[in-house]
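Methods — Computational structure assignment.
A single polypeptide chain was analysed. Its primary sequence is given first, followed by the predicted tertiary structure written as structure tokens.
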Amino acid sequence: HVVLAMSPSGDKLRIRCRNFPGLVSATTIDWFFPWPAEALEKVAMSFIGNDTNVPQELRGTVTSHMVLVHQKITDAATLFRETLRRT
């Protein structure tokens, strides 16, 4: 898998898509919307629930951290969009 993040504004994306048609012909575009903290917590628990590398006494803390990181990334993306006025 390859993850590319590009601004949809300006000419550069259009030029890259024209020069490299595989970027758009075999691409999945994901738009991420905010998730409730409870849903993020359930997903995090499903990932580490059976993981024996995470001690039982730390699973709650690790889960809370995963939720916090996801929320902070969402906040940073919103700030980025508002600051640069890009959608």
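Note: Residues 76 and 82 are 10 Å apart (CA to CA).
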